[in-house]
């Protein structure tokens, strides 16, 4: 796990081995349509602002970490761990630079980023999926990760937590529609306070392998990967 390509990103070092138990992951990012249905059933959570750009099957944004977690938990799911997210983005390959691609020429078929997209979150599943059948693991919107923000250590089970607030620093992964190519790599990590709302931060849910009922989560397309 980490920056296996250049070993130059200090925030993604040192490289370390991790064990990833079997898990489920949504095939695409949660959409406005899905979140609107959820928020209509939970009065304490307001529908996020779409800035007049439309809702429907666009990847939802302007959602805090707590709201993303609440959505997942409402369906018996959770946010993915960093090791799960990175394993899925890399398709189980240690040297995979982007999800589905290893160069810019190929990346345009798999991801929406600054050089090839409009300045807003796009419709999910409008690009090719990676080898695991997952869409937009690179680009479109950053995705909330379920844990706190640790510095990596050689022993992946012994970490140093980022000393800001009381476990308030979260992680987002994957880059977004307004990020340049350099920050889109599968190992790139960004620390963000959990109460942050941004027009390029969204999420997808994960589930433990023992879970059985997941199809109710999805509206645009059924099933988990």
**First-last Cα distance:** 21 Å
CATH topological fold name: paralog of FGE (formylglycine-generating enzyme)
CATH architecture level-2 label: Alpha-Beta Complex
| Gyration radius from CA atoms, angstroms | 16 Å
Count of discrete domains: 1
Q: How is the biggest beta sheet arranged?
A: 4 strands, mixed
> pLDDT under 50 segments (min length 5)?
213-225
Q: Portion of residues in helices?
A: 10-25%
Strand order of the largest sheet: 6-5-2-7
Q: Which structural class best describes the helix and strand composition?
A: alpha+beta
Describe, in plain words, how this protein is organized in 3D.
The chain has 4 helices and 8 strands. The chain is of the alpha+beta class. It has one domain: Alpha-Beta Complex (paralog of FGE (formylglycine-generating enzyme)), CATH 3.90.1580. Helix content is 14%, strand content 13%. The protein has helices at residues 32-40, 65-74, 82-89, 104-107, and strands at 23-25, 142-148, 150-151, 160-161, 169-173, 189-193, 201-202, 206-208. The two termini are 21 Å apart. The chain is globular, with a radius of gyration of 16 Å. Strand 3 and strand 4 (160-161) form a beta hairpin. The strands form 3 sheets. A 4-stranded mixed beta sheet has the order 6-5-2-7. A two-stranded antiparallel ribbon has the order 1-8.
């Amino acid at each position: 796990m980490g920056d296996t390509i250049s070993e130059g990103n200090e925030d993604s070092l040192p490289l370390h081995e991790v064990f990833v138990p079997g898990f489920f992951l949504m095939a695409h990012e949660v959409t406005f349509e899905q979140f609107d249905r959820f928020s209509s059933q939970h009065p304490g959570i307001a529908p996020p602002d779409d800035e007049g750009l439309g809702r429907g099957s666009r990847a939802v944004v302007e959602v805090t970490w707590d709201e993303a977690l609440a959505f997942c938990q409402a369906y018996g799911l959770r946010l993915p761990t960093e090791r799960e997210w990175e394993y899925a983005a890399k398709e189980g390959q240690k040297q995979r630079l982007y999800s589905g691609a290893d160069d810019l020429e190929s990346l345009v078929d798999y991801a929406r980023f600054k050089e090839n997209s409009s300045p807003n979150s796009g419709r999910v599943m409008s690009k090719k999926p990676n080898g695991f059948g997952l869409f937009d693991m690179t680009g479109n919107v950053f995705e909330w990760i379920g844990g706190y923000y640790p510095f990596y250590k050689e022993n992946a089970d012994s970490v140093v937590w980022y000393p800001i607030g009381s476990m308030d620093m979260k992680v987002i992964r994957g880059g977004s529609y307004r990020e340049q190519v350099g920050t889109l790599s599968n190992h790139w990590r960004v620390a963000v306070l959990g109460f942050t709302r941004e027009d390029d931060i969204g999420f997808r849910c994960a589930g433990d392998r023992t879970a059985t009922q997941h199809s109710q989560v999805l509206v645009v397309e059924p099933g988990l990967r």
